[in-house]
Amino acid sequence: MQCDMCGKEDYLLRTLIEGTELTVCKACARFGKVLGNYRPEVKQKQQEVKKQKPQVPAIEIILLVREDYAQLIKQKREQLNLTQEEFAKKLNEKHSFLQNIEAGKHMPSIELARKLEKTLGIVLIQEHKELHEGNINQQKSGVMTLGDIIKLKKK
Ligand SMILES: [Zn+2]
Q1: Residue 81 falls in which region: left (phi positive, over 0), alpha (psi -120 to 50) or beta
Q2: Are residues 126 and 67 in the same domain?
Q3: How far does CA 28 lie from the centroid of its chain?
Q4: Global pTM exceeds 0.90
Q5: Tens-digit pLDDT profile for residues 28-46
Q6: Which of 6, 50, 80, 98 is such that its CA lies 20 to 30 A from the CA of 136?
Q7: Ligand 1 centroid to residue 149 C-alpha, Å
Q8: DSSP secondary structure string for all residues of 4-46
C-alpha cells in the first residue's frame, strides 16, 4: 500500500486530514489526526478445509485361537509334568472344561487362550487380518499386474 498523500510505501496510518480519512505514512500523518493503524483488508478466502477424518484402516485385526490349540495345550502341559487336574487348578477352571479343550471339543475364548498362553508359555492366539470393503486398492493388492512384477524386479 502507498501513502495517499506522498505515495510512499510505508507502514500506513488511518488519519483524518482536513475532514477526510486518508491512509498515509507516518510522515504525512503529522498533518492530521491519527485514527489508528491501517489494516489492509485481507480477503480471507474461506478455505473450507474439510477436516478429513483420519482414515479408518480397512484392515481389521481379528484374533483367532489356533486350530491346533488342543494339541498345543496338551503337549505343553505334559512337558511341564502337570496332570489335567493340576493344570485345571492352576487355571482356576474345571477339570472337565479343560478336558473338553484338550479333546478339541471346546475352543477356548480369547480370554482363556491368553491365560493359557501365559501359564504355559505358548502361543495360541493368531492375528487374522481382515480386509474390509471400501479400500479397493488394498483389496486389489493380492493381484499382481505385469507392471507390479516389473517394479518388483527393478528393486
Ligand atoms: Zn506520506
Answers
A1: left
A2: yes
A3: 57
A4: no
A5: 999 999 999 887 665 555 5
A6: 50
A7: 69
A8: TTT--BS-EEEEEETTEEEEEEHHHHTTSEEEEE---------
